[in-house]
Amino acid sequence: MEIQAIEKKVAELKKLIKESGLNLSEELELLETKIQASSKTETAWKRVELARHPDRPYSMDYINRIFRDFTELHGDRAFGDDPAMIGGLAFLDGRPVTIIANQKGRSLKENMHRNHGMANPEGYRKALRLAKEAEKFHRPVITFVDTAGAYPGLGAEERGIGEAIARNLRDFSQLKTPLVCVIIGEGGSGGALGLCVGDKIYMLENAIYSVISPEGCASILLRDAGRAKDAAAMFRITSSDLLDFNVINGVITEPPGGAQTDPNASAAAIKKILLKDIKDLSGRNPSVLVRYRNLKIRKIGHWNEG
């Protein structure tokens, strides 16, 4: 509504300029700048809402549509199993692969079981165990990222959530097997980073990837949690932003209205990318994969003034 009101003002101003011959270019420019800023804010927040949409496909929805014969494996061999982090073996058009993914729940009961997709340390240790196993048997690794962040509870801190994520960052960067990551919904903070070190990283069109939630950013930087919309636009968390920053390799288009309107089409788009990249990466020397993966990581954040 705010954008429409400003656009109406601009139209009136243009009409006044034409009729009166007044020089109101500064006022006009100011209003057009406000329109652009408001448009960016609304677009960013719409992406946030779609990334969190309750009907949006989760990892298992894509796994069941893209792969065949998925066999889930459990446990980190140290503490226990974490239902918020799933992983196992499957076939991608006949090629054996290892899948690791965040998994949210649909119902209240399932979300309690899955901890809303927020993994504990044992989840990240399970992920690393499966990735190491994939390396040993020369299987490509595919990760699906969809989490608001790692679980920040007392037990998670006591069992070393920071260390578990840091170890994943280090060891995934050195993994001598192809790694493809797909951010399908929320990519929140270190919880997402623990699964998002890869040779290729993609985002679905309406996914988000950020160091903190818009609400958290608004509370800390803007001193007002109610300004989450402004924060979402300000710190550039959409797929197009991340592509501009060269953090990701590409954006996977979603059906109009979001992936939840046609999960089969979204799954088909992801599968097409995976088939192409897994075939390409599997033909490369593993040491070369590691070298270029690390070069890609080290380039993130570099910028040239002017």
UniProtKB/TrEMBL annotation:
Q: Which SUPFAM superfamilies match?
A: ClpP/crotonase
Task: Tell me yes or no: is Protein biosynthesis among this UniProt entry's keywords.
Answer: no
Subcellular location(s): the record lists:
Cytoplasm
Provenance organism: Leadbettera azotonutricia (strain ATCC BAA-888 / DSM 13862 / ZAS-9)
Q: Which GO terms describe its molecular function?
A: acetyl-CoA carboxylase activity; ATP binding; carboxyl- or carbamoyltransferase activity
- Give the UniProt family note: Belongs to the AccA family.
**Main site of residence?**
cytoplasm
Q: What are the residue boundaries of the CoA carboxyltransferase C-terminal domain, all occurrences included?
A: 23-280
Q: Which reaction does it catalyse?
A: N(6)-carboxybiotinyl-L-lysyl-[protein] + acetyl-CoA = N(6)-biotinyl-L-lysyl-[protein] + malonyl-CoA
Q: What is its EC number?
A: 2.1.3.15
* Name of the gene this protein is made from: accA
Task: Name the keywords, alphabetized.
Answer: ATP-binding, Cytoplasm, Fatty acid biosynthesis, Fatty acid metabolism, Ligase, Lipid biosynthesis, Lipid metabolism, Nucleotide-binding, Transferase
Identification of the protein by name: Acetyl-coenzyme A carboxylase carboxyl transferase subunit alpha
Work out whether the entry's keyword set contains NAD. no
The subunit field of the Swiss-Prot or TrEMBL record says: Acetyl-CoA carboxylase is a heterohexamer composed of biotin carboxyl carrier protein (AccB), biotin carboxylase (AccC) and two subunits each of ACCase subunit alpha (AccA) and ACCase subunit beta (AccD).
What is the top EC class of this enzyme, as a single word? transferase
Q: What is the lineage of its organism?
A: Bacteria, Pseudomonadati, Spirochaetota, Spirochaetia, Spirochaetales
Q: Which GO biological process entries does UniProt record here?
A: fatty acid biosynthetic process; malonyl-CoA biosynthetic process
Pathway listed? Lipid metabolism; malonyl-CoA biosynthesis; malonyl-CoA from acetyl-CoA: step 1/1
User: Record's PANTHER family?
Assistant: ACETYL-COENZYME A CARBOXYLASE CARBOXYL TRANSFERASE SUBUNIT ALPHA, ACETYL-COENZYME A CARBOXYLASE CARBOXYL TRANSFERASE SUBUNIT ALPHA, CHLOROPLASTIC
What is the documented function of this protein?
Component of the acetyl coenzyme A carboxylase (ACC) complex. First, biotin carboxylase catalyzes the carboxylation of biotin on its carrier protein (BCCP) and then the CO(2) group is transferred by the carboxyltransferase to acetyl-CoA to form malonyl-CoA.
Q: Name one GO cellular component term.
A: acetyl-CoA carboxylase complex
